[in-house]
Specification:
single chain; about 575 residues; alpha/beta
Length: about 575
């Protein structure tokens, strides 16, 4: 049976067809849907782990038990999981193990655009790169074969375009994996120096064996004829085919590490000119250079941003098809926090009090946008708490009274707890604000250890944030409603004045959650509105300035949170809108 599938959906289908029975991941765009789709199969146990390191270690444990396992993450998540990644390369596996990493060239939803292929090379692990949904499904099955045959975890690298585009897939039945019982083997699984030294030569031999596999496997294939040869992979392959059609000869690499040698040299010898087309860094190009080949690559194609058909054509001197264009330039529409977002009132309070704010990864990062301008730094998951500690230690008491950090409930579970332990252990007088919106919001409403539900929506243990913070050593823990501006203002001032570490939990569920009941839309009495625009400092998309310069409310967006009403000194909210 054939079916149109998203790339992430197809990869999940491939896991199921190949007999995978254990999945542990942490949500991160563009990888999230792999695990969400995998969870729909009854034969697969699927979970959200607190972070990517835990997910990878859990998947490894299932592999040791003899089960085919999987963990998924985005490219920056692989940084978090790098510690186990490099060591399980030495141990190898029992049951087949796949690690999916989804890169985000163009930084559609990420803080950098690192190239995960470097990890495969550095960790000496095989990496497969599907170029569409069909290959995502098939490569999952191939990956388990490679994993078990060569005793290695296998990385499948997705990217935004492959993960979120659709193509036709041929569906098959599930094939249960052969039983692989666990047998105690300290020399294989205990990586103390004496044992690890003996494993390293096995890794090098495995790389040599996998290189030989890459020479003959149909996962690396040659297409077409011509005097110009193009070596490419992943979504770049699709752009090459659309721009050049059958006018060039293509070596399409499905295995990006290790790459073949003879196959590439023979391909180069069959053409007059060799071009390497790849997004981000010149991984393929460097390999070709190491083989003594001269190629056109990063001298024409930049290492910044994602490619497209037109961009590739322009860079390589091909004619660009001209489509219709709009005469008027479209207005810029920057992302904003939703109307009724529980974080808005708190960020307004921080900005009003001119507080230095160390931010973190989540939808609340949008608090850095005008008109709030409420965040000073955003680095990576959990860095807000650690950054605040360092900032306050460096500048002393004056900084302690004018700086805080903000971190979401899911991000706090991911990486914030250890930063808070560091603050109490090293006696930092700082205020940590946990933005508890009762969900993992940015990646599409996944549950986390604070929500009381697991991946499938079943009841699960719920972490008590107040008790956890107190157990760590925080004596001052208080909860505020971010819709209450005066309460937030009072709490922030009092905690900043305290000469000890403190935690404020800003608690209100995300307004987009299905169970959250909103209030009727507010309205503005234009006679009472003095056009001071104080309420516009909130940056709420439900508020706008009408033709009469007065503020008006969009009833299709307003959820009646009442935060704007608290800022109006003239009692204008509550009347009838007059535009």
């Amino acid at each position: 049976m054939k079916k149109l599938l998203l790339g992430n959906e197809a990869l999940a289908r491939g896991l199921w067809e190949a007999g995978c029975s254990f999945v542990s991941s942490y949500p991160g765009t563009p990888s999230t849907e792999i695990t969400e789709y995998a969870a729909k199969y009854g034969e697969i146990y699927a979970e959200w782990a607190p972070n990517e390191k835990v997910a990878m270690e859990s998947a490894f444990g299932a592999s040791v038990a003899g089960k085919r396992s999987f963990c998924g993450m985005k490219h920056v998540g692989l940084n978090v999981a790098a510690d186990p990644l490099f060591t399980i390369s030495y141990t190898g596996v029992n049951g087949g193990m796949i690690i999916a990493v989804a890169d985000d060239a163009g930084m559609h939803s990420s803080q950098n655009e690192q190239d995960s292929r470097h990890y495969a090379v550095a960790a000496k692990l095989p990496m497969l790169e599907p170029s569409d949904s069909r290959e995502a499904l098939e490569f999952a099955k191939k990956a388990y074969y490679i994993s078990e045959k060569y005793d290695t975890p296998v990385i499948i690298k997705m990217c935004t375009r492959v993960a979120h585009s659709q193509s036709v897939c041929e569906l098959s039945d599930r094939v249960e994996a052969p039983e692989r019982k666990y047998e105690k083997n300290p020399q294989k699984y205990i990586m103390m120096p004496g044992f690890a030294k003996k494993r390293h030569p096995l890794v090098e031999k495995r790389t040599a064996d996998l290189t030989e596999f890459a020479e003959t496997s149909d996962i690396n294939r040659i297409e077409g004829e011509g005097n110009i040869g193009v070596i490419t992979s992943s979504t770049s392959y699709q752009y090459v085919k659309e721009v050049f059609g059958d006018s060039v000869k293509v070596l399409k690499l499905g295995m990006i590490n290790p790459m073949p040698k003879r196959k590439i040299l023979d391909f180069a010898a069959s053409v007059d000119k060799l071009i390497v087309v790849e997004e981000l860094d010149g991984i393929i190009e460097s390999h070709c250079n190491s083989l003594g080949l001269s190629v056109t690559g990063k001298d024409k194609i930049p290492m910044i941003g994602e490619l497209s058909q037109n961009k590739l054509a322009e860079l390589l001197g091909k004619e660009i098809p001209h489509g219709k264009t709009l005469d008027d330039e479209l207005p810029v529409r920057p992302p904003v926090m939703c109307a009724g977002c529980p974080h808005r009132g708190l960020f307004y309070t921080l900005a009003k009090n001119k507080i230095t704010v160390f931010g973190d990864i989540g939808c609340y990062t949008l608090g850095a946008q005008p008109p709030l301008n409420a965040i000073d730094t955003v680095i990576c998951m959990g860095a807000s708490v650690s950054g605040l500690h360092g900032y306050n230690k460096a500048l002393g008491k004056e900084a302690e009274q004018k700086s805080v950090c903000v971190i979401g409930d899911s991000t706090f579970m991911h990486s914030g707890i250890t930063g808070l332990v560091n603050m109490t252990y090293n006696d930092t007088h700082g205020t940590v604000i946990i933005l508890d919106n009762s969900i993992t919001g940015m990646t599409g409403h996944q549950h986390n250890p604070t929500t009381g539900m697991n991946l499938k929506g079943d009841p699960a243990a719920k972490i008590d944030l107040e008790a956890l913070c107190r157990a760590i050593g925080i004596k001052r823990v208080r909860v505020v409603d971010p819709y209450n501006i005066s309460e937030c203002d009072k709490a922030i001032k009092e905690e900043l004045a305290a000469e000890e570490a403190s935690v404020i939990i800003s608690r209100r569920p995300c307004v987009l959650l299905k169970y959250v009941k909103t209030k009727p839309s507010l309205s503005v009495d234009s006679e009472k509105c003095k056009a001071c625009h104080a309420c516009m400092k909130l940056g709420c998309p439900a508020l706008y300035i009408a033709d009469n310069k007065k503020v008006s409310v969009d009833p299709t967006q307003c959820v009646g949170c009442g935060v704007c009403e608290q800022l109006c000194k003239f009692g204008a909210f509550g009347g009838k809108d007059e535009k």
